[in-house]
Design the sequence.
């Protein structure tokens, strides 16, 4: 379980690094200018279309041949993609082709992460003590936040220590080389992982599905719909309430690029603290009541928090960012066990792929770009908060009617 969690740290470090360095990459790969940031965010959104495909492919592998082999394959792909990104030529060298190559590598990373997160969630759920499934499975979310923390912290440090010329010339490569080295190390460690006890049971009983995707779609449509709703809230609170915040603060001009990254670092620390607490709370009182409370808070708080970040003091901006981050961390923590428990062990990864990653594709990758467009064209700084609130209101009835899955 420790190795599985550490590998998620690296996967999410590699994947979220792009968004935290969005303003830098917009200059390096898209030439700067008024629309460069939009092009960078659009690349992030387009790459997200690969996440459902990656989840389906890796989910099929995990359901047919074992969780361990699937997790090894996803980490290998991420290692190669990260190292290649660190070696890419820039816009200054090859023009617009640099942006195209960056986008292709982002698609490979999204394909890898599509299977990684659901695979780790299933692995942790299937190896955890029954009474601690919420806590242990939420560690997948916490580990992803540790990866995001490393990404934002190293990004902030790199931006703070280097001049703009140094950063654009060679400094941007440093975080990507670090990510490639970490991924290679975890790939070696992951090779020592044992297979999930749940998959070993299926092998012993001869119940391993031959067509897990088809079986999940045929027999578990309501479960797929429920996981879609839960993950929709988790995705938009995370990608608008956490990862978009540095770009938002830079766009409205409240703080500098370096200050925005340091504020995001503080918010990431808060999420890491909140996540296991929310997972443990769901073990004690149940997944359903915690999700209902978090959905209600998501409908009420984000509008105010984005308004504060657009016009408040540095302290107020930091507090607002922490509130949004804690909200997103709580949803992700409880969503991890709640979605995995919607499916039996047979075909669990395929079911999660159809529900979780489809929601992430719709409400994750494109939402930072949509939020930026709304802020620019409407002049309403609270528009990103309104996006979160609308999704929360729409999914609240699903949370209310959700069947409790906490083992008793």
Sequence:
């Amino acid at each position: 379980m420790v190795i599985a969690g550490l590998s998620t740290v690296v996967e999410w470090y590699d994947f979220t690094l792009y968004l935290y360095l969005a303003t830098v990459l917009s200059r390096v790969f898209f030439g700067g200018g008024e629309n460069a940031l939009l092009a960078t965010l659009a690349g992030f959104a387009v790459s997200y279309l690969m996440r459902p495909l990656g989840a389906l492919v890796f989910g099929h592998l995990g359901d047919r041949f074992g969780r361990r082999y699937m997790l090894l394959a996803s980490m290998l792909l991420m290692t190669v993609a990260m190292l290649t990104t660190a070696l890419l030529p820039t816009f200054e060298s090859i023009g617009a082709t640099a942006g195209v190559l960056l986008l292709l590598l982002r698609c490979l990373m999204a394909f890898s992460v599509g299977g990684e997160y659901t695979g780790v969630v299933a692995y942790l759920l299937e190896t955890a003590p029954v009474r601690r499934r919420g806590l242990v499975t939420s560690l997948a979310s916490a580990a992803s936040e540790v990866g995001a923390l490393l990404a934002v912290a190293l990004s902030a440090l790199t931006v703070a220590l280097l001049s703009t010329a140094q950063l654009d010339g060679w400094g941007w490569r440093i975080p990507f080389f670090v990510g490639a080295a970490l991924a290679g190390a975890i790939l070696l460690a992951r090779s020592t992982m044992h297979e999930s006890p749940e998959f070993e049971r299926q092998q012993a009983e001869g119940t391993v599905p031959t067509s897990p995707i088809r079986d999940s779609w045929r027999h578990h449509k309501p479960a797929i719909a429920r996981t879609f709703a839960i993950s929709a809230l988790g995705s938009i609170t995370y990608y608008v309430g956490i990862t978009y915040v540095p770009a938002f603060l830079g766009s409205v001009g409240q703080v500098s690029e370096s200050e925005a990254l340091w504020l995001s670092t503080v918010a990431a620390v808060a999420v890491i603290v909140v996540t296991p607490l929310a997972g443990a709370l769901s073990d004690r009182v149940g997944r359903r009541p915690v999700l209902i409370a978090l959905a209600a808070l998501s409908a009420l708080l984000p509008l105010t928090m984005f308004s504060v970040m657009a016009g408040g003091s540095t302290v107020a901006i930091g507090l607002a960012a922490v509130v949004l981050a804690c909200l997103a961390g709580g949803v992700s923590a409880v969503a991890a066990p709640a979605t995995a428990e919607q499916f039996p062990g047979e075909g669990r990864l395929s079911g999660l792929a159809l529900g979780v990653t489809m929601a992430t594709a719709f409400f994750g990758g494109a939402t930072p770009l949509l939020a930026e467009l709304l802020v620019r064209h409407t002049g309403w700084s609270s528009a990103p908060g309104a996006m979160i609130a609308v999704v929360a209101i729409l999914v609240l009835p699903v949370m209310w009617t959700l069947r409790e899955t906490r083992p008793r």
